[in-house]
Design a protein that fits this description.
By secondary structure, the protein is an alpha/beta fold. The strands form two sheets. Strands 1, 2, 3, 4, 5, 6 and 13 form a seven-stranded mixed β-sheet that branches. Strands 7-8-9-10-11-12 form a six-stranded mixed β-sheet, covered by helices on one side. The relative contact order is 0.12. Helix 13 packs across helix 14. The protein is built from 16 helices and 13 strands. Strand 9, helix 14 and strand 10 form a beta-alpha-beta unit.
């Protein structure tokens, strides 16, 4: 029989776990309550510090992170009548499985507290959490969507510091705030009000300093560099039906909207991800390619568009290690979720293929080692198991003044990887283009979160972001994270805007996620010292003579 005090403990643990999960969830866009993140981890820290054993720790930290995931990324399944069942199954699997990764910082925190004491554990926690967030961005299962720094996207003065420390640096500060608030709570309850005020004062000083720094940056912000005019096309095609529809009627829509943008002075026109649902450059669509090229020449505009790309290899030596083989074994091929640039003054087409693919949805992780997964994981719309492009591309085109303009384009999910985007800028990109199709997710939190995360890429790199989304949200974001223009969801429209080319290099571009590297080192050192102390103490016990 469960004793009353155990029932009381159970209810307290459940309450603390749920409270943390809910607070963290409501700190993410589209909610403008990002400050919830400053104390969202406090309830679960209270629980972890009272947990009796690892079993209890694992149960309730998983529950907390499960609620966090379920409320924040519920939209990944699409959940419409047309949604592919695999998409729904994959989203449920993600929500159920991904919280397990969050055991890592909590288990190490508990381990350090047990053998090194509460102060050392609390000191280590921001480093442990930051290490996890960074590591979740670097392998083939990477999913950095829930980085805590992303909660601050609406607080423009506060996040100007991202040009120095990046979004992971903001995450680190958020976890520091949580630790300080937890310590303040503990001091208030068990020790002295003065110590509580000291901890809260540190948070206030940091936030006020960030706010003042950001306001100075924003007040002094100027647009310098060469100006060009861009046009953004939002065609609003049904993301499921477009793969079955004829190509030329879709081209008609794009060219009509692009013509309107060209009449308003656009020099570069951006179409969204997989704008046309065919391998347009495979050689099977010469007339369709001719239509786009002729439009570029007649209007004197460049068009950059998301497009499926296929590369053929007629010998095994020229094929890549993980290239697929045709049904009749006569050739090898790779398919890419790509971006191409059509120019008005040449038939040469510049290409880029997506390098950070959505795990399981676009490519099975570690496919070269587990090739059978490629046959198991497929969408009904024919966009699964893309190949991975091997080199970041910087596109180049001539403006109407004859000057050269350089930019890079990232595809959808790639826009949430900070260091990856900065590498394009380091290689010479003067602005960034994002092509995406978020229409799969309907009118949910997903499109709003995705759009807001682009704010950080603008600030980290001090570059304009030109964002074209099939059904929205298309937008133009300046180098300070300010949204100059954005569309509504699910409307067929276009807009034009001025952007300015930049060659400046921010501190973040040069040093990237330095805070995360430091976090990994400090976490490793503290964990190693804790292990040494644990096994040293055990050895001393075993060597102690019997009385």
């Amino acid at each position: 029989m469960i004793r009353i005090e155990n029932k009381s403990d159970l209810f307290k643990n459940i309450f603390l776990a749920l409270l943390s999960g809910i607070l963290l969830s409501f700190s993410f866009p589209p909610f403008k309550t990002g400050f919830f993140a400053y104390f969202g981890l406090v309830p679960i820290l209270i629980f972890v510090n009272r947990a009796k054993n690892y079993r209890e720790l694992l149960i309730f930290t998983y529950l907390s992170m499960l609620i966090f995931h379920a409320f924040t990324i519920y939209w990944i399944g699409g959940w419409t009548s047309k949604t592919d069942p695999f998409m729904m199954i994959g989203s449920v699997a993600l929500i159920l499985v991904h919280p397990f990764f969050y055991w890592i910082p909590f288990v190490f925190f508990f381990f350090i507290r047990k053998h090194m004491g509460s102060k050392t554990a609390l000191f280590s926690f921001p480093f442990l959490w930051n290490s996890l967030e960074y590591l979740r961005s670097v392998d083939e299962t990477a999913f950095p969507w829930l980085t805590l720094g992303n909660t601050q996207s609406y607080y423009l003065p506060v996040i100007q510091i991202a040009s120095i420390i990046g979004v992971y640096g903001l995450s680190f500060l958020i976890v520091v705030f949580n630790v300080l608030i937890y310590v303040a709570y503990k001091n208030f309850r068990y020790e002295s009000f003065r110590f509580t005020l000291n901890k809260l004062a540190i948070i206030v000083i940091i936030l006020v300093s960030l706010f003042i720094y950001g306001k100075v940056i924003l007040n002094d912000a100027i647009y310098d560099g060469k100006k060009i005019i861009v046009g953004i096309i939002q065609p609003d095609f049904d993301p499921w039906e477009k793969w079955e529809d004829a190509v030329n009627p879709q081209i008609d829509v794009y060219l009509q909207l692009s013509d309107s943008a060209a009449h308003k002075g656009a020099e570069l026109i951006v179409w969204p991800e997989s704008a046309l649902p065919v391998y347009l450059l495979s050689g099977n669509y010469p007339e369709e390619v001719r239509r786009i090229r002729n439009f570029c020449r007649e209007k004197n505009v460049a068009i950059v568009t998301g497009l499926p790309i296929v590369h053929f290899y007629f010998s095994k030596e020229k094929a890549k290690e993980d290239s697929r083989i045709s049904a009749d074994s006569s050739y090898y091929y790779d398919t890419y979720n790509g971006v191409v640039l059509f120019l008005p003054d040449t038939d040469l087409i510049q290409e880029y293929g997506k390098m950070n693919l959505v795990p399981f949805a676009e490519r099975a992780p570690y496919l070269r080692y587990l090739p059978f997964l490629g046959d198991l994981i497929k969408w009904s719309v024919g966009i699964s198991n893309w190949s991975v492009w091997d080199k970041q591309t910087v596109f180049n085109f001539k403006t109407r003044d004859g000057d050269s303009a350089k930019f890079s384009a990232v595809v959808c999910y790639e826009s949430i990887f900070p260091s990856f985007n900065s590498e394009f800028v380091k290689n010479g990109a003067q602005f960034l283009v994002v092509v995406t199709n978020d229409s799969w997710y309907g009118k949910t939190s997903g499109p709003y979160q995705h759009k807001q995360y682009a704010v950080f890429r603008a600030i980290e790199n001090r570059r304009w972001i030109v964002r074209s989304a099939n059904g929205g949200i298309s937008s133009l974001i300046d180098p300070y994270g300010r949204t100059i223009f954005e569309t509504n969801l699910f409307e067929r429209t276009f807009f034009v805007g001025d952007i300015y080319l930049s060659n400046d290099q921010t501190y973040y571009i040069q040093y990237r996620d330095l805070i995360s590297y430091i976090s990994l080192i400090i976490s490793g050192l503290i964990i190693s010292i804790t292990y040494i102390k644990k096994f040293g103490a055990r050895k001393d016990e075993s060597n102690r003579p019997e009385e």
